[in-house]
Amino acid sequence: MRPYSTATMLVRGGTLVTPEGVFEADVLTQGERIKAIGHGLPTSHDTQVVDAKGCYVMPGAIDAHTHIDLDTGVYQTSDDWFVGTRAAACGGVTTVIDFATQFPGQTLREAVESRLTETKGAVIDYALHVMITDLPAEREDEIADLVGLGTPSAKLYTTYRPNYYADDATILRLMKACADYGVLPLVHCENDDLITSQIEALKTAGQTEWRYHGRSRPALAEQEAVQRVLFLAEAAGSPVHICHCSTALSVSLVAEALEAGQRASCETCPQYLLLDNRVYDGPEPWRYILQPPLREPKENDRLWRLVEGGLVDLVATDHCDYTQAQKMAQNDFTETPGGLPGVETMLPLMFSHGVADDRLTLPQLVELLAANPARLWGLWPKKGVLQPGSDADIVVYDPAPETEIEAEAQHYEAGYTPYEGMAVQGEIRVTISHGEVVYQEGRFSGREGRGQFVSRESMV
């Protein structure tokens, strides 16, 4: 546990951004919480002052889908929790929601407890979803443990045989149990049969080089699985969250279910808004091996319109810190680990291509990156909001600088970024976690191990 401090900090002269609006005010913190918001706030001689003049002051971003220190049983990222959360802090992210994987032979409780032994180096706060991979019918009551553990969300997969995949009967059974025990399922949706068939056809044709990756997991595989999962969730009486939607139809299916009275939500990622499958024909297709893959260029604008219209609940990164060496080991998409680094670039990219490009308002940005993930995943109002009593997790964003994303400036292990050379408007000036500056004007100052596990409330 962090030693409690009564020190005060004043974030002065900035423009505050909340889901409700934008206004001029200062923020006073005491210890780990926000104490007051307004003008002329009382301070003492030892109050630390953060100059936010000309900047936007927002709640720290929440990346609600990361894979730090990931072990899939096949591939292992090279980062650890210090490295992963340091990168997050440098990108204005003050909370990540990662995953505890249930490995063979583990109970769900053991999966969470084992994961918590790996997170001790975290710089910022973190929460956990739980990947259910092996839970036969006689053990369904273990799902109830997830609420008591503060991890009331269960990740399910319709693909990735044999380690993660669950068939329809298993998904329906587990969703019913989740509904009974107050646990929210989140699902990676891709039709495994369609993908397997397509990959086998590409293998037969000798087309397994990186440039063929996009063809191996067609959009139809995602869209069919989204529709099927929504149908199963309704039959089970369970709410459901659809992960990393890469097509507009996937989001529209969720929106239609919601309009019909179903409890459903979804997310997309910066890569699906800003990158497209033309990169697979470029000189470095290895940079873009991920699941689901990048789509046709027209999907970018279609997805953006749905984000603008409020039909996407949140933006997350699906961050995976595989190194360039791991990615380039074999020019074969079937042997290349899938996933992109992104936790450090999420906020600058979404500000630049959302707010600065007039696709999003500032309040919408805060909703997508802070307020909505906090509400959906049981962190509100501790996280995701600037108000007295909430955690003093704050990001000061300077909208003036014009820069480009460069791999050498990032703080993770990958050694590359899929956004190399992409222009960004503005930069993170200061990141404050629990009332402590952990990043300021290009310098990381956080302490290894200061981050804490955040127990979440059931929202079902």
Describe this structure in words.
This protein has helices at 81-90, 108-116, 143-148, 168-181, 192-204, 213-216, 219-236, 248-259, 270-274, 297-308, 324-327, 346-355, 362-376, and strands at residues 8-12, 15-18, 21-24, 26-30, 33-38, 48-51, 56-59, 61-63, 66-67, 93-101, 125-131, 153-157, 184-188, 240-242, 264-268, 314-315, 319-320, 394-404, 423-433, 436-440, 443-444. The longest helix has 18 residues, at 219-236. The model has no long low-confidence stretch (mean pLDDT 97). The strands form 4 sheets. It has an 8-stranded parallel beta sheet. With 460 residues, it is of the alpha/beta class. The two termini are 29 Å apart.
Highlighted features:
21 strands; 13 helices; globular; eight-stranded parallel beta sheet; seven-stranded mixed beta sheet; single chain; 460 residues; alpha/beta
Please write out the topology.
Blueprint (H helix, E strand, L loop, with lengths): L7 E5 L2 E4 L2 E4 L1 E5 L2 E6 L9 E4 L4 E4 L1 E3 L2 E2 L13 H10 L2 E9 L6 H9 L8 E7 L11 H6 L4 E5 L10 H14 L2 E5 L3 H13 L8 H4 L2 H18 L3 E3 L5 H12 L4 E5 L1 H5 L22 H12 L5 E2 L3 E2 L3 H4 L18 H10 L6 H15 L17 E11 L18 E11 L2 E5 L2 E2 L16
Parallel strand pairs: 1-6, 2-7, 8-10, 9-17, 10-11, 11-12, 12-13, 13-14, 14-15, 15-16
Antiparallel strand pairs: 1-4, 2-3, 4-5, 7-18, 18-19, 19-20, 20-21
Helix pairs in contact: 4-7, 7-8
